[in-house]
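Researcher: I'm preparing a figure for a lab meeting and need a structural model of a single chain. I don't have an experimental structure, so a prediction will have to do for now. The sequence is pasted below. Please return the structure as tokens so I can convert it later.
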Amino acid sequence: PAARKHLRHVTETLISPIYTVISPAQLKAFEGYYTFQFNKGDDAYIHIAAEPTGLVLKQMWDEKEFMFVPESELDFYCSEANSPLKFTKDKNGNATQVLCFNKDLWSRVRE
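Model: Understood. Here is the structure written out token by token.
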């Protein structure tokens, strides 16, 4: 029993994502609308909003929301969707793009 408990602890430690703490100001830098075309000529939008512990991604076409927690300064993870967000910043530190769910590259909409 003790060995099994230890093995479970080791396994959970190895497969559990490691989260990073990011300040509210750093999180706010990712806020805004991002666009992508699933079909040529048809823009889709997501909205990223800062929360105290991470980012909320809202799909504008169906209002579905996903909570992402920081893994690094530019990488976030959603356990519900088992998927990452990976941001790209320009030389001035502004978020310009986000790779969602390891497949779609969304561009930030300049307001």
